[in-house]
Specification:
By secondary structure, the protein is mainly α. It has one domain (2-102). It has 4 helices and no strands. It has helices at residues 2-22, 29-50, 55-76, 84-102. Helix 1 packs across helix 3. The radius of gyration is 15 Å and the shape is flat.
Length: 105
């Protein structure tokens, strides 16, 4: 359940990043409210997962999920470039996340 909450927190973080972009500097009320709700939700889930998981591992995995997810959403939704170099570093980040998860933490 702890890892599930951490993964949900990472996914909510991606949603938060998208909502912040869509809020246009918090000038769009609906997106602004959504971003604050997503922020509260991902902090809650992250905090719950930190009750059991080691801080360094949990934070690195959570950050990685947010970073990888945000890059993928940027490429798919916002048509940001999907260059070979970006995809290489995305794969490198995923490898680090999986390594931390499989290291027994």
């Amino acid at each position: 359940m702890t890892w599930f909450l951490l993964i949900i927190s990472g996914i909510l973080d991606v949603g938060w990043a998208v909502s912040v972009k869509m809020a246009s500097g918090y000038s769009r009320p609906g997106w602004s409210v959504l971003s604050l709700a997503l922020l509260a939700a991902f902090i809650f889930c992250l905090g719950k997962s930190l009750q059991t998981l080691p801080l360094g591992t949990a934070y690195a995995v959570w950050t990685g999920i947010g970073a990888v997810g945000s890059v993928l959403v940027g490429i798919v939704v916002f048509r940001e470039p999907a260059t070979a170099v970006r995809l290489f570093w995305l794969a490198f980040t995923l490898t680090g996340i999986l390594g931390l998860k499989l290291s027994g933490s």
